[in-house]
Amino acid sequence: MRFKIGNGLIPLNLLTWALIAIILFLPHHILRFVLGIPFLLFIPGYSLTTAFFTKKEGISGIERVVLSFGLSIAIVPLMVLILNYTPSGIRLEPILYLVASFILITSIIAWLRQRRLAELERFTIQFRMAIPSLGKGIWDKVLSIMLVIIFLGALVTIGYVIATPKVAETFTEFYLLGPEGEAANYPEELMVGGEGRVTVGIINHEGREVRYRVEIVIGNKKSVEVGPIALSDEQKWEGDVSIVPEVAGENRKVEFLLYIDGEVKPFLEPLYLSVDVSE
Hints:
Layout: E1 2-4, H1 9-25, H2 31-41, H3 43-52, H4 61-84, H5 92-115, E2 126-128, H6 138-163, E3 171-177, E4 189-191, E5 196-205, E6 210-218, E7 221-231, E8 236-243, E9 249-260, E10 271-278
Parallel strand pairs: 4-10
Antiparallel strand pairs: 1-2, 3-5, 5-8, 6-7, 6-9, 9-10
């Protein structure tokens, strides 16, 4: 019994857009990995191969499959390299949409080219269902099946590594600078009611937008509050803040506390200065 499914590009495009829907709405579903492997390692090269080789003659089925894998392995990294020089950068969504668009465009080209051919000349995929013979040559068949399983296992491993890259460490930089914009020459001596100035810096590496708030505490009493400061990922903020002590004393501790997203406990260990305050 034989089954024909045309050149296979329609179901592959449906799988591509199904993958996009799964990533957007079910980001941790196992189908993300199942569909992501052929999406990266086979479908882009297959759609391009089909656009070039629209006839039955020209290349064999095995050559078409091998060429599809080879082209995919070459095309996808090239797309990632191109994205690296665009404002969107190398992120999941731009890669997803760019590869999906490439598959769709090359599929349309393949469809337009095949329309010019007679139906019998067009490349089509056929499946033949038959009970395999277990007579002569069984060990050759077992060896072939084992090689196919090993090959598919290698593809699954590569696809999993690509689809689940190691998540980069997230953190926030929180620092103080003196009047000259360097980590030196901080105020050490002040008068009661006098003003010292430092620059507070924050750099967001949390992988998301964060709202920060800074409190300056002098001798266990809040003196100044700055914020909220909304920073997107990799965004930097620096601002001048005033230190105005109200009580005299030696080695008065000036603390700088950083909070995020409305939390009541400091997000990081406080930064502090020690200031001598005179009357």
